[in-house]
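Students often ask why we bother predicting the structure of a whole assembly rather than each chain alone. The short answer is interfaces. A chain on its own may look different once its partners are present, and contacts between molecules only exist in the joint model. In this exercise we take two input lines together and write out one structure for the complete complex. Read the inputs first and try to guess which parts will touch.
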Amino acid sequence: MSDAQDAQNGYHGVSLATLRRFGVDVWSDVEIETSRGAFRGIILPRSEFDDSTHLVLKLKTGYNIGIEIRTITAIVELGKTEAHYKIPEKDFPVSPEKPSVTLLGTGGTIASRLDYRTGAVIPAFSPGELYGAVPELADICNLTTEKLFAVFSENMGPQEYITLAKAVGAEIEAGVDGIVIGHGTDTMHHTASALAFMVQTPPVPVVMVGSQRSSDRPSSDAALNLIYAMTTAATSDIAEVMVCMFGSTSDEYGLLHRGTRVRKMHSSYRSTFRTIGDIPLAAVTRAGVRPFRSDYNRRRDDREVGIHPFFEERISLLYYYPNMHPDIIDSLVDNGYKGIVIAGTGLGHVNKSIYPAIERAVSAGVAIYMTVQTLWGYVHMFVYDTGRDLMAKGVIPTENMLPEVAYIKLGWALGQTDDLDRVQEIMLTAICSEITEREPHDGYLVFQGGMPEIEEFLKKVNR
Amino acid sequence: MSDAQDAQNGYHGVSLATLRRFGVDVWSDVEIETSRGAFRGIILPRSEFDDSTHLVLKLKTGYNIGIEIRTITAIVELGKTEAHYKIPEKDFPVSPEKPSVTLLGTGGTIASRLDYRTGAVIPAFSPGELYGAVPELADICNLTTEKLFAVFSENMGPQEYITLAKAVGAEIEAGVDGIVIGHGTDTMHHTASALAFMVQTPPVPVVMVGSQRSSDRPSSDAALNLIYAMTTAATSDIAEVMVCMFGSTSDEYGLLHRGTRVRKMHSSYRSTFRTIGDIPLAAVTRAGVRPFRSDYNRRRDDREVGIHPFFEERISLLYYYPNMHPDIIDSLVDNGYKGIVIAGTGLGHVNKSIYPAIERAVSAGVAIYMTVQTLWGYVHMFVYDTGRDLMAKGVIPTENMLPEVAYIKLGWALGQTDDLDRVQEIMLTAICSEITEREPHDGYLVFQGGMPEIEEFLKKVNR
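Now the answer. The structure tokens for the assembled complex follow.
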């Protein structure tokens, strides 16, 4: 193996030397002895930017671990497994009566040929590769794919939101029947809300999808999530920006969440995405989409869509904590920030000691908006003195907008105008349910698979 | 009415002049005409620190609103209601066979004679006043009360935590059978975790309680929460720092939450406190406490307790958001912060662009700990490159410690020592379930009143 190939597999310096010393390579099935115990697994490739002090091993459990090179005392090769990582590629069957769907790739777990983050045999990305891995897709739509970029979702930001919004606009103009966006799950809800503001009243579904467990694990949600997302994009009457992910602990259905009312609520569960302060838009199974409500933007035949790709990057989101010092806000003002979203305690409160910093920020023309860190419920700043004090100082309550959504919306609003009255008008006018008139009782922590409506739906679908 | 009395009722300047102009006063039942519509309610007193540009009206619904003085065109007095706000005070019946409980007041909604925040006729604070308002208390315990301070909970901080911890220690030494702490709900969970670290293995229950709705509203949880908290303090075998609050949408029981695993999750619901990533410790009804588990610190007859009242105030908690800029962390370092807790995305991630700032912070001796902003689930930084990169830079994962709890624990750890190895040892050693070995499936968003165990318990109690 040449140095160039090694570099491509991500090992260099000390780690490369260690692989060579023990005569093993990427994809070797090995037993590694270390000063912290023995490990059995497959040596995975790494990305070219990785450090050289670790070796990454895929364990039988499907989990990866990083092993510090300096702790390694021996490596024994038991076999090679590269063959398992080949993707069967077939021609994606196209027929004129099927709807057309475009999959836009951003670099999330689904949209990679070989995911360097997990070492997983991901169902890949080209239509042929996807068909080879998930043949059901051919029954749903005619598929086109386009890779926009390849970043981990924690590195997604305003520039990617703008590129994505424009790409969605171009696809709509080109006549597609639905759009699926493959995205890492970490910040999928941030991107979803950015797209909800940047892509207004689209004529077709715009469906974000990812997976919590890579497709080489028995419990993977990758294929099903993709099937549900494609089904939604191809057939659903709901023409909004949505997140389509695993519904509950059962894999009998997926849920469609509004892009502005969804948040990742578990670091590892597949049922991590939850509609907050409302019920989800719909359930989706292989049989189709079943809305839970009727107040949504409907699919249309026209190609009209408002693409508003703006973002002011000097904004911040502060979750208040007890004893927060004024320097936290002073520094933001000194560093030229134009907007701050605070996630206050209770109904929208912070401590008295940062009042002066808030006054200074407002005087300096910084837009300050209040949300609640309880996540569920509304800001109500008229109830207590603290809230009234803060409003008197110019802090603006944002009803029941989620903190993360308010952050995205403030960047989007300030990206359009410097006029703070206009910004306030944009912030407080609901565009796509980021503010709702009421939160139903079953929108609080209780939306479970056991919900009667879903149960009924499943009975019908499964019979 | 004299100026001095007016000042005491909080009206001054323009607002006082307006009350006089229309011949009305605090406690007047009025109809107010404004440029934004008419309002009917009772004029409430305000605190002496309030602005003079608003008048506060208690509506029939129990909600208060602030009315801008400049919008008022007329005020008509319909009656006076001060009489309703008198608290019937009686001698609290004491008998030697009842357990002794001390109520420590911090200024929350329960522990005020007249709550200026809500204008509510709060069941007051002295044992006699409390007995007059909630006669059931006399069946539970012999009550002593002590007012430590009177601050809104959003203004609670390290100094109050320390005072409170010492007061708890003194009460235990004095021989009390249980302690109840009245506290505003905004930051009750922060204070609970501070006390859990500062008051270790107490021999008696230490129960924090508050109310989400003031006691003059039909739906108030104030009296029941107090009864449940007193019952717990007087009789429970669970000798830990707990939060006792409304259990579900039914008021048939309260729940006891561990101080380190509880978070306020709704800005206005009574069922706002939720055990995160675990099931609660117990349910409590008028009939007594029913533990859901057996792994708790038990009540003892000795008076031994570890009081560890330390706190380093230069710490911060950052909830990561997409496109976070390095200046956020640079400013903390420049301003002398000694510790930062990050609530990362997914399994504990941030974007690459703040890596250099993290490196600088670690080099400067700042302790950086990672939690997850999903709230549920564990940090797992070995799974992806981002996590491994961050660990290589010195960021330390904290398992499933809640972000707010990690913030409090880091302040407490750094308050004891500057030795960062020792701090790490403290941070990663579970003291009172702030880190647990696993999160049960029914600890994820699903703990409802419908849980079979509770249902069964209620059937038994109610028959």
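Check your guess against this: Confidence is low (pLDDT under 50) at residues 1-8, 111-123, 447-451 of chain A.
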